[in-house]
């Protein structure tokens, strides 16, 4: 069992109907539970965070069907407003079509707009991809300078994270990049399985139930 599972968690609020009051409540809950970060939509920035709590912000979310220049500008603005980490969505259709050079160029544009020490996570929508495509996209993310590959937005009808996808992603990137599991991680057992498969970060919107082992939780 992982002792302090909260430290793996990006405590997430990405609902379209989220209000400033919802954001404040999410930040307060993250601080109470001791999560690694909060993950928010870019329009909710700027926010004030307690010391020690990181801020992750999504880019090109949730479809990934944005021009690279728009993703880059969105990431740069988020960083200027306090983001420590960027979670960007690839063009999943480009990946399905085998246009991995385009996927790499898209990621690289965001990386250049949000250079280190900003952490860049690349959402690949693994449930919508073949195993070969998962490997190729993870390779493209590494080549473009990403820090993480991430399974899912949690908004795609194909589904969210799976142990198989996390294992394959980890096998592909080794210790050079990290892996984030998000979407469908609803219990502590789910979370433990993802960590055992190689995930070093979890995206959860209902973190308390996972951390406290009390039942099902939402996962974006």
How large is the share of residues in beta strands?
A: 15-25%
Q: Any low-confidence stretches, pLDDT <50, length ≥5?
A: none
CATH fold call: TIM Barrel
Q: What about the largest sheet?
A: 8 strands, parallel, barrel
State the fourth-level CATH superfamily. Aldolase class I
Tally of separate helices? 8
CATH architecture: Alpha-Beta Barrel
Ends: how far apart?
A: 23 Å
The total count of strands amounts to 8
Q: Looking at the structure, what is the overall shape? A: globular
Helix-strand pattern: EHEEHEHHEHEHEHEH
CATH class: Alpha Beta
Query: How helix-rich are the residues, as a percent range?
Result: 25-40%
Main location: cytoplasm
EC number: 4.1.2.4
Organism: Microbacterium sediminicola
Protein name: Deoxyribose-phosphate aldolase
Could you name the key traits of this structure?
220 residues; alpha/beta; TIM Barrel; eight-stranded parallel barrel; 8 helices; 39% helix; 17% strand; DeoC; cytoplasm; Aldolase_TIM; lyase
Please give a quick description of this structure.
With 220 residues, this protein is an alpha/beta fold.
Protein architecture, described:
By secondary structure, the chain is α/β, with parallel strands linked by helices. It has a single domain, classed as Alpha-Beta Barrel (TIM Barrel). Helices cover 39% and strands 17% of the residues. It is built from 8 helices and 8 strands; from the N terminus they run E-H-E-E-H-E-H-H-E-H-E-H-E-H-E-H. It has helices at residues 20-33, 68-80, 92-96, 100-113, 131-143, 163-173, 188-197, 207-212, and strands spanning 9-13, 37-40, 54-59, 85-89, 119-123, 148-150, 178-182, 201-204. It is globular, with a radius of gyration of 16 Å. It starts with 8 loop residues before the first strand and ends in an 8-residue tail after the last helix. The mean pLDDT is 95.
